[in-house]
Write a structure and sequence with these properties.
Number of domains: 4
Number of helices: 17
Number of strands: 9
Shape: globular
Radius of gyration: 22 Å
CATH class of the largest domain: Alpha Beta
Oligomer: single chain
Structural class: alpha+beta
Order of helices and strands: HHHHEHEHEEEHEEHEEHHHHHHHHH
Helix content: 55-70%
CATH architecture of the largest domain: 2-Layer Sandwich
């Protein structure tokens, strides 16, 4: 739940974001708002949360009569965001080239694919890492290739993804999540694949990877479906922002993602989006994401598309997977979507005995405990919850 002061700020920022993207004057500082350091800091905290610093600062003069303290903070954040993007693009191009060298086409998804396909400047799309779909590949040769090109494994290897990092010439460390399937959940992956998501991609020439065919990204309309599910998952499981774990589905940068994709859709594109959402069983969450963008930043959506999405029931297993579900029930659901016994064993092992990264997130105050003790605490907590639900 957003506090009332934050909600007022968010409404103001939504209007400012619309103006910034349309190259019109940003709204003036409300006359009844104080110009105190505390209020400026609260405003900047929401700008940072939404990832809007550089989007609002496309022209420095556009911050108009906003307090000087706030203008300075936004400018500093935007500058850092620009430098980060420059280094991230460098390492992304290196990764794409390394993968292509062993016959793997890495397809960027989510924020990075959108940054280089629908944003006027990739740096405007604030993000912390990049996701690439690499498909089911031989892991040992892949890992050798990544290590040979200066990448280092990060965190825990998971059944359907791994994270790797590398440092750019500017000194930033950049993280990349490599996915064997379009989603880390077998249930969600199967639903998205049923809609053809992961099979359609577009070139991303701005990445500048010097490889045959260049860098590629998930098709924008497909990415909208992926982003809608991602938004719903973030509300349920949270997402990492610095040291904090946040639970909020209303970040304005996600509304901007939807808006920019929608601006590029013609009649055939809207029909493809509708059919993809229906085939993947994601119509309700896509409807929610479109309604959110329309409400917050005025995204134009054909009424017939909204009506068709609203009339389409979602896939029950998909909706259950992104809803409130106990750990053991979730495991049973995911196992039912694993295509092989090997995949089932990997999912079971990781769910029951995850790596230290998951354990430290679950029990941040006990990160100094031995792994065995953390595993025991986690299993006991899960068993206790199961008993309470049955009782």
């Amino acid at each position: 739940m957003i506090d009332a002061p934050d909600l007022a700020i968010d409404r103001f920022l939504a209007a400012a974001l619309r103006a910034a993207m349309d190259r019109t004057a940003l709204p003036p500082w409300p006359g009844d708002w104080p110009r105190t350091a505390a209020h400026a800091d609260a405003m900047f905290a929401r700008i940072a949360f939404h990832g809007l610093a550089l989007a609002l600062l496309r022209d420095p003069a556009r911050l108009g009569d906003w307090p000087a303290r706030l203008r300075g903070a936004v400018q500093n954040e935007a500058r850092a965001q620009s430098f980060w993007e420059r280094g991230h693009r460098e390492v992304l191009a290196r990764l794409v080239a390394a993968l292509a060298g062993v016959g793997i086409t890495g397809i960027a998804t989510k924020g990075t694919a959108l940054a280089y396909s629908v944003y006027p400047d990739p740096a405007l799309r604030r993000r912390g890492d990049s996701d690439l779909l690499v498909g089911e590949v031989a892991l040992r040769p892949l890992r050798r290739t990544l290590a040979a090109h200066g990448f280092t494994p990060v965190g825990d290897a998971r059944p359907l993804q791994e994270s790797w990092s590398a440092t750019c010439t500017l000194g930033f460390t950049h993280v990349f999540d490599l996915h064997w399937r379009i989603n880390a959940s077998p249930v969600i992956a199967a639903a998205l694949e049923r809609g053809g998501i992961g099979t359609r991609s577009v070139p991303l020439p701005a990445v500048g990877a010097e490889v045959d065919g260049g860098a590629r990204g998930l098709a924008p309309a497909d990415n909208l479906v992926v982003g809608a599910i991602n938004r719903a998952m973030h509300l349920r499981f949270g997402y990492r922002s610095g040291a904090a774990l946040l639970f909020d589905a209303d970040r304005l940068i996600w509304a901007l993602d939807v808006d920019l994709v929608c601006r590029g859709l013609d009649a055939a594109g809207w029909q493809t989006l509708l059919e993809t959402a229906q085939a993947s069983g994601a119509a309700p969450v896509v409807h929610s994401a479109l309604a959110f963008a329309a409400d917050r930043i005025g995204t134009a959506i054909p009424p017939a598309i909204m009506a068709a999405l609203a009339a389409t029931p979602g896939d029950a297993r998909l909706l259950r997977c992104i809803g409130p579900l106990g750990g053991f029930d979730r495991l049973r659901l995911e196992l039912s979507a694993c295509p092989t016994w090997r995949a089932k064993l990997a999912m079971t092992a990781y769910t029951l005995f995850p790596g230290r990264e998951v354990l430290h997130e679950r029990f941040p105050g006990a990160s100094h405990w031995p792994a065995a003790a953390l595993h025991a605490r986690r299993l006991l907590a899960g068993a206790g919850g199961l008993v309470l639900r049955k009782g």
